[in-house]
Structures are given as structure tokens and as C-alpha cells.
Q: What sequence folds into this?
């Protein structure tokens, strides 16, 4: 909704949600604001500066309605923006630190091998730190699971040719629940200090903008900056950060590091019972969402009444309400950085998400993307199948157990909102024909019409050899829809056939990400192939446990 006006020149002011230049000329281009709204903001006493702090229509719809407008921004253009930013001449005589964020569920990350090419020989990067995000979504399959995940992450980096000198470290975090973030900040301040700029890089949906927002409200950012810099638009729709958003990095002087360590020490002595009711409420909310929770505090600024790190649409000064009202007074009071605050500043930049090719999410509508991308702790679903049985993950993936001597266990790790159905080989095609596009298989949705344009499922044969009844041999990763971990008797040979939509990547991940996942289950449900599900407890870091775990 909202009309363009091609006669109005672009504003020169960036959208505070995605960094695109605000304009009202072209509704399909980044930074669009409906002409009427654009004029009401830019023709006030402040002139074009009245647009400062406003967001484009796309960011507004993402924040308020989780709706995304399809924008004309091809992957090559995304890469160009990122590459051009990285090729800027080094400021302060030192190349930037690259903070590469990947979604752990996506390992082996499809963009990681592109990094050397994106950096190129002429990028003077001084260091690379790889951050595995969304660790809170994965259940602990056995003691030491975080150590194993970190090893898998380091191995993926080495495989992508990123080992050696520039790789500073690999870390596991949850940008959403705060787990691992205080450790990441301490690591950045210890090893990178304030030596140069920092760029956040990553594929779309890796949680990059969420991390940017969390760092903006942490000890990593200059203490006054969060009041001046608006937060990036966080949304599950691919490629939501269009141009470069940035905040100034605080200089970690000895005094500041000391004060920060004192705060962290003091917080580590607190138990959950000593938290305020508001903090407890927030913590409980995070525990429902993730298995691993942390709290990100501020040392150098009085804490405001709310500690919520989540994206808050009310922070935005622009609203396309039914009756848009504009308060010029609010704009005049907007804080700006002083020259002294930023003249020698080192900046942390958020960059556009790099679009993943051959990814099932590219085939889905925004409503379907929201069902497929897990946002809450994943509860594994385990089934015991005999040869001749078939497992469907929505209508996005299928695994057939063709040959084997004994039953095997198939554990699904995917969004809790995606249905799993078990069928026989003789009924499987008919089931897909009948229920594809309908509520029974859920995604895609839209009936026969939708399925006509949706790519068909294409098969790939897989041979596996079992390790034992408690340890999975491999994960069958059905593009970005989730994966199925296969556990079989020792030395048992299995022939499987897995399917994903044409044009999407099917990956056999060996070793599996969570090898003991099939042990997280209740008793068998009589008369079915399914086991009852079991949700492991959540763990809160940097709080003292009170004897109970």
C-alpha cells in the first residue's frame, strides 16, 4: 500500500532498519516510503533531516506484520555490496576483523566456502572470527555436546579453506537468548581491542541482525550509542539487511575491562531466586524458547527498566498507522553523535545477508518460511522404521528405508511446527499426491494450484553402515527444512532413498551433528512407529545454580 512519486529525488538519509537510502520513487526498490508519508516527514521544518530515524515500508511491514515485500535485489548485487564494503581502504592502518555468523543447523554452511572468494586477494582482512549461532535450539544429546559442536564448526572452517593465520577463534552463541554473548564480547575486547573496524558477515537467516542488535545493547558498543543508533530489522525473511548499518565500538581500556569483569563476577554469584520479578519473567520466557540462555548486561550505563534484547517495533519513529500521525517534536529531540564521539571511532558494521543458493527457503512464501525456520528449542521426534517404510517431513522432504536386515531409528530435527508422517513405500506417492499443499503435510500450503508450480521431489540413493543402537551414523539434511539422524545396529548396512524439491541441496552429513539424538525420547507409542517426545531442561549461564540442574 502507498503510492510512489518518481519525480521526488532520493533523500540521502538511510533507513534505520535496513540501511537502504529512503526514497519514494520506486515501490519495488529498497528504501521505499509511500510518497505521502515521505513528504510529511521531509517537508517539515527540519527538511530531509526529518526522515532521520524513519524506516522504509518494507522494514515497517516486517516489524509489525512479519510481512515482506519481494524486492528486486539479486544475489550478485548482495555480494557486490558486501565485497565493496570489505575492499574499502584500511582505516587506522589496519584491515577489519570479520565476524562471520553461521546458523549451526545449516552446517556445513553453504556460504563458508565462498568466503575466501568474497574476501579476494585485495581485501586486507586482519582477522576472522567464526560464530556458530542458534546453539540454543539444539538439545544436549549427551554430556560434552557443546565441545562436539565446536569441533564440527572448526572442521567446517578447515574444510572451507579458512584454517590458519586469519582465523582467530570459533565460538558458539545464541544471539536471541544471549547465551555465549558475554564470552564473545570479552574475546573481542581481549584479542581485537579497538584496533580496527569489525564487519558482521553471514548468510541470510543466520541471525546476523539479531547479533548486531544484541551487541548494540552490550558492553561492546559506546555507552550512548544505543540511544542514537536504531536497531536493525530482525526477521526470518531472507536478506533483510540491505545496506550497511553500524555502531561505534567502545575502547576497552584497562579500567573498563576491570569494571566489566567485576560486574560479571558479581552476576555469577547471583541465583535465579535473587533476580527481580521482571528479570525472572524475561528469563522464563527465554527458557521456553531455547535450551541455553544467557544474559547480556551493561557495565557502563545505568540499566533502563527493560532488559529485553528483542526487536521492538515501538523503537521505530515511523508508523504506517491507519491514520499516520507525525510528531515533529519527537524528531527535534532525536539525539545525534557529537564530532568528538565519532572522529576516531572504530565501527561495527552489519552487512546484507548473503543469499543461499539451492535453498528450499527460496521456494517458500513468508508464511511458509515462518513455519519452517525453527524459533523455539527443537524437540527431537524419533521413529523406528522397518525396510519398506517411508518418513515424510511436511511435503519438503522424504526418506525411504529400502533395504536392511533390522529396524533402524530415524530422529527428526526440524521446526516443531512441521508435521512428520510415516507411510509405506506402496502408499507414499499417493499420500504426497493427495495431501501435498494441504493441512496434513502443511508446507507448502495453497492446494493443487501451489503444488503445480512447486518443484517435484527428486531422489538420491544413500548407503549407510550402522555404528550401534545409541549412536547415529549420519544426518540426512533435507536442504534448510531440517534433518533426519539415522541410527542403526553395528555393522548393519542400510539402503535409503532421500528426496528434496528439485533445485535444493540434499546433504549427507557424516559425522552427524548430534550423534546421540535418538536417546532423547520417551517410551514407544503402542501401535505406531513413534516414540513419545522428551524435552531436556534449559540451562542458564552466568547465574549460580542452586544445587538443582
A:
Amino acid at each position: 500500500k502507498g503510492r510512489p512519486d518518481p519525480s521526488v529525488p532520493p533523500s540521502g538519509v538511510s533507513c534505520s532498519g535496513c540501511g537502504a537510502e529512503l526514497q519514494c520513487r520506486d515501490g519495488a526498490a529498497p528504501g521505499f516510503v509511500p510518497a505521502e508519508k515521505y513528504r510529511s516527514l521531509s517537508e517539515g521544518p527540519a527538511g530531509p533531516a526529518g526522515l532521520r530515524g524513519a524506516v522504509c515500508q518494507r522494514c515497517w511491514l516486517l516489524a509489525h506484520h512479519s510481512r515482506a515485500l519481494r524486492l528486486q535485489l539479486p544475489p550478485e548485487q548482495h555480494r557486490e555490496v558486501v565485497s565493496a564494503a570489505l575492499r574499502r581502504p584500511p582505516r587506522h592502518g589496519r584491515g577489519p576483523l570479520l565476524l562471520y555468523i553461521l546458523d549451526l543447523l545449516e552446517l556445513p554452511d553453504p556460504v563458508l566456502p565462498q568466503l575466501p572468494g568474497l574476501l579476494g586477494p585485495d581485501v586486507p582482512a586482519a582477522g576472522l572470527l567464526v560464530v556458530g549461532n542458534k546453539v540454543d535450539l539444539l538439545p544436549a544429546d549427551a554430556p560434552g555436546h557443546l565441545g562436539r559442536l565446536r569441533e564440527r564448526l572448526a572442521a567446517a572452517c578447515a574444510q572451507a579453506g579458512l584454517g590458519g593465520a586469519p582465523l582467530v577463534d570459533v565460538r558458539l552463541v545464541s544471539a536471541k537468548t544471549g547465551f555465549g554473548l558475554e564470552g564473545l564480547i570479552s574475546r573481542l575486547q581481549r584479542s581485537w581491542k579497538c584496533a580496527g573496524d569489525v564487519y558482521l558477515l553471514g548468510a541470510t537467516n543466520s541471525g546476523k541482525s539479531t547479533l548486531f542488535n544484541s551487541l548494540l545493547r552490550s558492553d561492546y558498543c559506546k555507552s550512548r550509542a544505543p540511544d542514537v543508533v536504531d536497531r536493525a530489522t530482525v526477521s526470518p525473511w531472507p536478506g533483510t539487511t540491505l545496506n550497511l548499518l553500524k555502531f561505534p565500538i567502545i575502547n576497552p581500556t584497562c579500567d573498563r575491562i576491570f569494571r566489566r569483569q567485576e560486574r560479571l563476577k558479581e552476576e555469577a554469584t547471583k541465583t535465579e531466586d535473587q533476580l527481580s520479578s521482571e528479570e525472572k519473567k524475561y528469563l522464563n520466557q527465554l527458557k521456553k524458547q531455547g535450551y541455553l540462555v544467557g544474559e547480556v548486561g551493561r557495565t557502563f550505563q545505568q540499566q533502563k527498566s527493560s532488559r529485553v534484547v528483542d526487536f521492538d517495533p515501538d523503537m521505530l519513529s515511523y508508523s504506517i498507522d491507519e491514520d499516520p500521525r507525525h510528531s515533529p517534536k519527537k524528531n527535534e529531540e532525536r539525539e545525534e553523535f557529537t564530532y568528538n564521539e565519532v572522529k576516531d571511532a572504530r565501527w561495527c558494521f552489519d552487512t546484507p545477508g548473503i543469499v543461499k543458493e539451492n535453498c528450499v527457503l527460496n521456494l517458500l512464501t513468508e508464511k511458509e518460511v515462518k513455519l519452517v525456520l525453527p524459533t523455539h528449542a527443537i524437540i527431537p521426534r524419533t521413529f523406528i522404521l522397518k525396510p519398506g517404510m517411508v518418513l515424510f517431513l511436511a511435503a519438503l522432504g522424504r526418506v525411504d528405508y529400502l533395504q536392511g536386515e533390522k529396524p533402524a531409528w530415524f530422529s527428526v530435527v526440524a521446526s516443531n511446527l512441521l508435521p512428520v508422517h510415516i507411510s509405506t513405500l506402496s502408499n507414499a506417492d499417493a499420500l504426497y499426491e493427495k495431501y501435498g499443499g494441504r493441512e496434513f503435510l502443511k508446507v507448502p500450503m495453497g492446494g493443487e494450484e501451489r503444488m503445480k508450480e512447486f518443484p517435484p521431489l527428486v531422489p538420491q540413493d544413500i548407503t549407510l553402515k550402522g555404528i550401534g543402537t545409541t549412536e547415529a551414523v549420519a544426518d540426512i539434511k533435507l536442504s534448510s527444512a531440517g534433518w533426519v539422524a539415522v541410527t542403526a545396529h553395528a555393522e548393519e548396512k542400510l539402503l535409503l532413498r532421500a528426496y528434496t524439491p528439485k533445485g535444493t541441496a540434499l546433504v549427507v552429513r557424516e559425522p552427524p551433528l548430534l550423534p546421540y539424538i535418538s536417546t532423547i525420547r520417551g517410551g514407544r507409542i503402542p501401535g505406531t512407529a513413534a516414540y513419545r517426545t522428551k524435552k531436556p531442561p534449559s540451562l542458564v549461564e552466568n547465574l549460580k545454580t542452586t544445587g538443582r540442574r
About this structure: Confidence is low (pLDDT under 50) at residues 302-334. Residues 145-159 form the longest helix (15 residues). Residues 75-268+341-358 form a domain with the Rossmann fold fold (CATH 3.40.50.300). The CA atoms of residues 275 and 281 lie 9 Å apart.
